[in-house]
Amino acid sequence: MEDDFEYGSAEDAENSVARYEEMIRNKDQYFFDAQAFEAIIDYYAEKEDVNKALQVIEFAINQHPFAAVFHLKAAQLHAMNGHFTEALSALEKAELFEPSDGDIYLTKARVLGSLGHYDQSLEFLDKALAMGENLDEIYLQMALVYQQMDQYELAMEYLQKSLQNNMENHDALYELAYCYDKLDRLQECVEFYLKYIDNNPYSFAAWYNLGNAYHRLNQYPEAIDAYDYAILIREDFASSYFNKGNALVNLEQYKEAIEVYKETFEYETPGAETYCAIGECHEKLEEMDKAREYYKKAVKVNPILADAWFGIGVTLDYEERYFESLYYYKKAMNLDPENPDYWFAIADARYKLKQYDLSLEAYQRVIELNPGDIDSWLDYSSVLYEQSDLEGATGVVVEGIKKNPDSPELYYRLVAYLLAAGNYELAFNYLELSLQLDPENYSVLFEYLPKLRENRTVMEIIGRYRAP
After folding, report:
1. Smaller CB count within 10 Å for the chain: N or C?
2. Is CATH 3.40.50.300 what the domain over 185-261 is classified as, yes or no?
């Protein structure tokens, strides 16, 4: 056993960790003071190596059995792993040794909140509050509990208190934006952050959240300006670049968006979502080889990112490689079977491959998942019509109208099918109803059945509704 005990608080974290790992390799017992043990535990916790951190805590408790801090850290680590029973047990021991430590009650409140025991959580937060330390964190935790209870107004009150105690509490700033969003008070959100920035013009978090609020209001130029200020203040904040890229995409400035997305690579490891976003930009620019390259990078990083598999399929579909595209659409669908966009693409690909029965099955799934998708009803009925199933096509459109009674496109399509079936009186009635709904869009009728321009009655009815 090593007999030099002059290690401890004088050692920095790196030396403490090296010495601890030497002890483990040698299967020996070295002495560390409490501060050194804390540094070692924090080192492993920051690396998200919870098991090693808990192992260190065992050694620490053996050498410092009455130090509450190690039981507290054990509780925090158990909570990170979702082991709440063990966390509460560790907290009981910590409270026994140090009943005046507010962090113990704060951690206990977090654990109880995670278990859904909100009233008990608030009770312990009140205890922590009475200790008079870390008030901004306690108010923030209270706000999070009220959010879990869907009481967003109360949550906002406590977030404001958190910021009054610490205007630089970035978590409180983010959560406040979340509450404004949940309450659909985005304009108030903008006003709050503008006022906050007046007093704290160098808060990158405030500028970032302002950008997000503008983004949700579809005010993309204003959002980009806010993100630019956030970047100016904190150049390495990758999320600002990513969200700025999203805003540029919404403005259809795809080349600019690609460059901004790529700037994130300087400050964080390239992620699947960013690769996928770049791929989509190249897709919009009809640069399918480049799009496919980035989609493939995305699935290499994250094989369960359904949108990236779907994107590969889209690029192949564009190149009329329908059989190959179907393979990738199905991979996306298997990862996210409730996504109607994937089913729509599958339906379309099967139609192009002349797999009509399978195409119809996929369209049926689309309208089940998203009955508000008008194009799916129209395409579904078209496949039936092309298969000479006029009755089936008509039935699909009638069902679509039941789900979407204000959709003129469906009424116009029903008129076409009724005329094709020779049911003129009913067709003309529906034509009038279609024109009442949307008198300017009657041309969709001729796009589907061009010969109807030669039908005198049809043209007379349209003439009555056309603007002079």
Report:
1. C
2. no
CB count in 10 Å sphere of residue 345: 24
pLDDT at 5: 39
Q: What does the pLDDT look like over 192-226, one tens digit per residue?
A: 999 999 999 999 999 999 999 999 999 999 999 99
Q: What are the domain boundaries of the chain?
A: 185-261, 269-354
| Model pTM score | 0.80
Write the CB contacts of 280 (distance below 8 Å, at least 6 apart in sequence): 249, 291, 311
Q: Which residues make Cβ contacts (< 8 Å) with residue 271, sequence separation at least 6?
A: 301, 302
| Best CA proximity match to 309, nearest among 333, 287, 339 | 333
Measured between alpha carbons, how far is 37 from 57 in angstroms, rounded to an integer?
A: 8
Tokens 């194009």 -> residue: 375
* Gap between the Cα atoms of 28 and 173, Å rounded: 48
Q: Count of CB atoms within 10 A of residue 119's CB?
A: 9
Closest to 415 in 3D by CA, of 443, 375, 440: 443
Give the separation between CA 276 and CA 297, rounded to whole angstroms.
Answer: 8
Weakest mean pLDDT among 90-99, 289-298, 337-346, 414-423: 90-99
Contact 69, 45 (CB under 8 A): no
| CATH fold group of domain 269-354 | 1.25.40
